[in-house]
Design brief:
Blueprint (H helix, E strand, L loop, with lengths): L1 E5 L9 E4 L9 E11 L1 H8 L10 E2 L4 E8 L11 E4 L14 E5 L3 E3 L6 H21 L7 E5 L4 H12 L3 E6 L2 H10 L3 E4 L5 H8 L4 E6 L6 H4 L3 E9 L11 H5 L4 E4 L7 H16 L7 E6 L3 H12 L9 E5 L2
Parallel strand pairs: 9-10, 9-12, 10-11, 12-13, 13-14, 15-16
Antiparallel strand pairs: 1-2, 1-4, 3-5, 3-7, 3-16, 5-6, 6-8
Helix pairs in contact: 2-3, 2-8
């Protein structure tokens, strides 16, 4: 089968595309013919060796998948051959990735793909959708009528946070770095969309939420807690999902005296059962037309290295040449 893989950690150019043996399934695995995958920052970190996880070489890259089940193990009960499925959390913690024509995936990590959802959309929403849901609801305990702020609303996670929070009955503010991306955020449902290059974010947020932000979903690599913590409401919750090397100053006086909470999490620490709760909500909102990923670029598997380079330029290098997700299509 054709696959995109590495033989050792390295730069995007270390990704090879070639033939590997089709994987064999275990009793609780499904063999999925992959139609689409997407690229996430965690994929870059694992490929580069920045995040150390157990890897079996050749290591197939990629954590998100969408495709069709072609074979199931004897202990599988949730899916049969022919079922369209999507999922995430592959390529992590010793599991092989999914940027290949076929992947053996544990049944607990798979979810049914609604007939209304394309494989590209299913792959694009997988990791970012589960991340957004865990942050907003499991950790952020978001309630209808509350106010949410997410910087980077045109990005993979940010665009989903906007839509989920609106679907849950919250008011949402966000920002982006250009006028067209600000308009994109408004189109996703943001009540307040700002250009962080030209607008006074602090002043605008105080007008949006005079009593403070209930849930601040931080997506930036270098969060400024000295600015953001005072903007939280009493008992406000801040969600941190980025900034591996960041060492921000925490204004304790403003934080603890107002009963604020700070939650950091990585979605791959959530159990399959916890993630299935997120997947069920994602499917339901997708069917209702309330949730759709923003896909910035679609590329073939032969351009897997270029896809990693493009995302790396925009996450680490802040090139500003990409919004939304990169999808790699195999069918």
């Amino acid at each position: 089968m054709k696959a995109a893989f590495i033989s050792q950690p390295g730069p995007p150019e270390s990704i090879q595309v070639g033939e590997l043996p089709k994987p064999k399934i275990g009793p609780r695995d499904a063999l999925v013919q992959i139609a689409a995958t997407s690229v996430n920052p965690i994929d870059l970190y694992i490929r580069a060796g920045t995040v150390t996880m157990p890897l079996a070489y050749p290591y197939i890259i990629g954590s998100d998948l969408a495709g069709t089940v072609v074979e199931v193990g004897k202990e599988c009960t949730r899916f049969q051959p022919g079922a369209r499925v999507w999922g995430s959390n592959q390529g992590l913690l010793g599991r092989q990735g999914v940027t290949a024509e076929f992947a053996a995936v544990g049944e607990d990590w798979l979810y049914p793909t609604p007939k209304e959802t394309t494989d590209a959309d299913a792959a694009a929403i997988a990791l970012v959708g589960i991340t957004a849901h865990l942050g907003l609801f499991k950790h952020g305990n978001l309630k209808p009528g509350e106010k949410v702020y997410v910087p980077g609303g045109s990005g993979g996670v940010g665009s989903i946070v906007i839509q989920m929070a609106k679907a849950a009955g919250a008011s949402v503010a966000t920002c982006a770095g250009s006028d067209d991306r600000v308009e994109l955020c408004r189109g996703l449902g943001a009540d307040l969309a700002l250009n962080y290059k030209t607008d006074d974010i602090v002043s605008e947020l105080r007008g949006f939420a005079p009593e403070g932000i209930d849930v601040w979903f931080e997506t930036q690599r270098e969060p400024n807690l000295e600015v953001s913590i005072p903007l939280l409401r009493r008992r406000g919750r801040m969600i941190l999902t980025a900034g591996r090397t960041a060492l921000p100053t925490l204004p304790l006086g403003s934080f603890y005296t107002r009963d604020c909470s700070l939650f950091g999490f990585a979605m791959f620490n959530a159990t399959p059962q916890e993630q299935r709760v997120c997947a069920d909500a994602i499917n339901a909102w997708s069917i209702e037309g309330k949730l759709k990923p923003v896909i910035g670029r679609t590329m073939p598997i032969d351009q897997a290295a270029a896809a990693h380079k493009l995302l790396e330029d925009n996450t680490l290098g802040r090139a500003g040449t990409l919004h939304g997700k990169i999808v790699i299509e195999l069918a």
